[in-house]
Structures are given as structure tokens and as C-alpha cells.
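STRUCTURE REQUEST FORM
Protein name: MF13A protein
Source organism: Aegotheles bennettii
Requested output: C-alpha cells
Priority: standard
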Amino acid sequence: MGLRLLACLFHLPTAVIYGSLSLFVSILHNVFLLYYVDTFVSVYKIDKLSFWIGETVFLIWNSLNDPLFGWLSDRVFLSTQQPGAEISSPEVILKRLRALSHNGPLFAISFLAFWVAWAHPGLQFLLCLCMYDSFLTMVDLHHNALLADLAVSAKDRTSLNFYCSLFSAIGSLSVFMSYAVWNKEDFFAFRIFCVVLATCSIVGFTLSTQLLRQRFEADGKAKWEQESTLKELYIEKLSVPQEKRITLAEYLQQLSRHRNFLWFVCMNLVQVFHCHFNSNFFPLFLEHLLSDQISVSTGSFLLGVSYIAPHLNNLYFLSLCRRCGVYAVVRGLFFLKLALSIVMLLAGPDQVYLLCIFIASNRVFTEGTCKLLNLVVTDLVDEDLVLNRRKQAASALLFGMVALVTKPGQTFAPLIGTWLLCAYTGYDIFQRNPLSNVVSAQPKLESAAALEPTLRQGCFYLLVLVPITCALLQLLSWSQFSLHGKRLQMVKAQRQSLTQGQASEVKTI
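Status: completed
Returned output:
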């Protein structure tokens, strides 16, 4: 039975094994996002100053570590193509898989560090956040980079992304299971639950990366044996020219001339802002727009749907991407966001069922769009390789540079949202619970009863005007993005010609 199971695992398609890595991240990361603040505030009793110091340092480190780790990983790939200096596709893939096999288990261990008090709360909060985010960044960078390295065609990349979305949806179930064991007064059951999740993640990372490594080690060895004699003869006859390394300043200069990259990060900055705006203000909208109209269970259902539906919805969007292209699907989602928001604005805040549908769909479609954008980044990786004639695609580095420019949207979302709400209503959203990084839904105070109609109106306008503004800005940026249609086909054809012979090495997708 055990041998039969191992045989089945070994013959799984590459896309399935690659997608399963998303499961081993999401089962931990969803639980982390939901409980880490509540744990330190309510269980460990962290003080306000230590909390904000930790969050500030985390925000800085969170923005810088993506390009830093991407540069350390991919700087060797930045030099232009020269004879005798080629790096084969299996070598690059194996490099990424080795990084995942090391950092995946360390990511799971860093997740466990949150749930046991082992230092002063302020110090533990700072160290845990930075350590967890470092390993998560390494895992995300190399996992996303593999999307560009394993396949060139849009069909194969959407297939890889399809399984990522499927396994991420399965991983979201850990959030629902966590409700059964979460208890601030008795933390033991929750700690055991987290240990089980981390163990599953460690085993999963180890097994998946080992299966993929065995698959590509065979390809790499065959290619090395085929070319070794030719390389030896070449080196005997000609001296290999000194490889010109690209400095960070030169790389940034190249990016500044990459027009599609600049338009994409402008659009994606707005997208990241909107995703985190929805996450931060979802409970506030439920409280002030729907709390008197719907039951608590309905509110919980809407919250649960907003976590799992984007992954399931993405499965359909990916099938559309195969037929229509990623550019057209993303543009259609922007138009859909704009249309739904205008309809909701015209309908007003008293249409309860329409409001429920809009609040849920707004988050679902916005998160779904975010999950499609990795495919666009992989196309930018192809264009970067072709434009600068690199010897190998610097996938992780480009993903890191995208994150550097767009991650400030995470910080802007609560700042701009609370400023707009306060400017319109005079209501300070953090006055009653300043330590939470998500908006809390506390019982209304009688003294605030007079403010409630204005607050409700302010929440409604915030709910509909932010998506309208975001959609207009994104449509403007996206209309300038030219990496689609014939240009995209030309870029992919040129990449395949530059890396001729490597397409067959990923035939198992």
C-alpha cells in the first residue's frame, strides 16, 4: 500500500505538485493573519508602544526584504548572454527547489514561534514578525519565480496557477477549523492545532520539493552530459570572455526604461491598496451598514465566503484567461468593479440584499484579480529577459521589485480609509480599540447614537466611492500596458529562441 502511494505521488503531474506548495503556505498563513494580533493583544498583553514599534519595523522590513532576497537570489542571472556562460533551465529550477526545501520547513517553524510566550511580548512580537515574514518572502519569491521558470506558454502557466488556486482554497479551510479550538482563556488546544498544521506543512514542503527535484535532476544530468564535451572543446580553443556583472544601480536603470513594468506597478499599487482596504474595513461595513438588518450568523457567513470564494472564483477566471488572455480578463474585472459600484451608489444604502451581495462580491472580485496578476508578472519576466538579453530570467528579482513598489499600498489602505472616514463624519475608527490592526465591531455607545446616521452614510460612500476611484485609476494604467496580443506572442517567441531547447525540459507540466 505504501509503495503504491509513493508510485502514485511520483507520477503526479508537475503542475499538481507545484500547486500543492500553495496548500502548505495557506494553511498556516490564513491562521496567522486571523490570530496573531489578537494573541499578542489579548493573551500576551503587549503594550501599545511595543505594538506600534513592532508594526513600524515590520512594515519597513516587509517592503525591503522582497527586492533584497530577490537580488541575492538572481543577481547572477542579470548579465547578458555570452558564449560559454549559459545556465540551463533545470539548474535554475533546482536552485529554486533547494531554496524552497530549506525555507519551507523554516517558515513552518517560525509560524509556531507566535503561539508560545518565550520572551518579553514586545521583543517576541518584533522578532516573530520579522522572522516569519523573512521565510514567507523566500518561499513566495521562489514559488512565484517557478511559475515563470517552469513554463513559457500562457496555457501552461494558467495550468500551474489553476492548481495553486485550487490548493489555496483547500488551505483556507484551516480558518474554519481554527474556530473550533480558538480560546483565549485556554490556549492549549489551539497550540496543538498549530503544531499539527506546521507538521503537515513541513512534511508537505519536504515531500513536494523532493519529488520535483528528482524530476528535474534527471533532466539536468542528461543535459550536462550532452554538453560537457562540447564545452571542454570550446574552452580549449577559445578563452571565455569575462562575464560583465550588472550592478543594482544598472538593474534599476534598466527597470526604469521598462515601460510595461512601470505601468503595471502603478496599476498593482492601486490593486494592493484596494485589497487591504477591503480586508481592513470589512467588519466596519458589516457593523454600521448591516448589523441591524442581518443576523450574526449571516455576517459570519459573508466573512467566511470572502476568504474562500476568491480561490474558487479564480478557477473560472483562469479558464477565461486560456480563451481570452489575462489582459482582457483583468480589464473586464476592472469594468465589472466600476459597474457594480455605480449600481450600488445609485441604489443607496437601504437595499439590504444588494448591499450584502456588493460587500461580498467587491472583496471576492478584488482578491480574485490579485491572484491573476502573478501571470502578468511572469510575462514581464519574459519581456525583461528579451529586452536586456539576459542569460537567464531573473524571475525572483522581478517579483521582488514589484513587491517593493506595491507593498506600500498595505500601509496606505488603513491610513487613507480612516482619514476619509474621519474627515467626512468626525469619527475616529481606532478610538475604542487602538491596538487592533483590523477594525473592531464593538457595541455602540449611547452617546454615539446621534453620530450613527452620519457614520452609516459615511461608511456607504466609502464602500462605493473607493472602488469607483480605484477602477478608474486602474483602467487608465491598464490601457497603457502593451504586453498583450501580438506583442506578447512576439516576446514569448523571442524568449523561446533565446532559451532554445529548454521548453522540452518542462514537458511534464
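Reviewer notes: Confidence is low (pLDDT under 50) at residues 82-86, 227-240, 432-446, 501-508. The chain has two domains: 11-238, 257-438+448-500.
Form closed.
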